[in-house]
Structures are given as C-alpha cells and as structure tokens.
Specification:
globular, single chain, 0% strand, mainly alpha
C-alpha cells in the first residue's frame, strides 16, 4: 500500500477535480449559476461531518487499510459519477443535479473514510515525537496533489470541447 503522504496527495488530486475543475466546467462552459457547484461542494463538506463515524469504525475494526481502500474507491467512483453528471447538465438538468448530489455524497464519504482512517493509521504508527512532522508532510502532499492535478487538468482542458 502507498505511503500516507502519497495517499493524501491522491485524495487532494481527486477532490480537486470535484471542487475546482467541475466547478469551472459548470459555470464557464455550461453557464450554470455558480450556486449549483457551490452547493455541491458545500454538500461534500457537510457529508464529511460524518468523519467521526468513519474513524470510530476503523478504530473498532482495527483494519484501517481496508477502510482506506474503501474510502479511496468510494472517492474515485463518486468523482466519476460527478463528472458524468456534469456532462448531463446540458441536456437533462434535473437528472444531472440528482446524480451530482449522489456523486458529491460519495466524494464526501470517501474523503471521510479514507482521510480519517489514514490519519489514524499514521498517528498509531509514528512515534509521538514525530507525529507533528508526519502530519505536516501528509497535508503538504495533499496540497501538492491539488496543485499538480489542477495544473495538469487545466492544461488539458484548454480549449474545452
């Protein structure tokens, strides 16, 4: 399994697609009201309020790697659902919104399950004196994942067709 820092970079890169790239496509390319992607992003954060439940589940079960894999799979699949919903906005806006809500729900739950379990695994596997540095490294890697994914996706998206 990948290191915590690279898992965190992956989470950041995938979430960037939902919170930034799809936002741009919805507002700029499809001329939707900015409130639609803003509401979807807010919803994905609201779903993450369930993080204590994901952490409790991984603490009780003791199989954090399984929770991380489940969360990453849910995050990835939810992002695919959200991407496909975005392309439906042009022809079937009501259906697209319903599917997008499902996708962003999955994204929020996936981030909660993978991210929380991953940070718990990190905390339990690192010496107490090194936890702050380990946590900082994983969050820096998440930002790096966001930056690299945003730059790459932005370059590939221009021009949109």
């Amino acid at each position: 399994m990948a290191t915590p820092a690279f898992r965190q970079a992956s989470i950041g890169a995938i979430v960037m697609i939902a919170t930034s790239l799809l936002n741009r496509i919805m507002v700029v390319e499809y001329a939707l009201a900015a409130a639609i992607p803003a509401g979807l992003v807010a919803w994905h954060y609201a779903v993450q309020l369930s993080r204590p439940l994901w952490g409790l589940g991984s603490d009780k079960g003791g199989r954090r790697s399984a929770w991380i894999l489940f969360g990453m799979a849910l995050l990835g699949f939810g992002t695919l659902v959200a991407v496909n919903a975005t392309f439906l906005f042009e022809s079937h806006p009501a259906l697209a919104l319903a599917i997008a809500i499902l996708g962003f729900t999955m994204i929020g739950a996936g981030v909660g399950a993978a991210g929380t379990s991953q940070l718990a695994l990190l905390a339990s596997g690192v010496a107490p004196t090194r936890r702050a540095a380990a946590a900082a490294t994983t969050w820096i890697m998440m930002v790096a994942g966001i930056i690299i994914a945003a730059g790459t996706a932005g370059a590939l998206l221009d021009p949109f067709s």
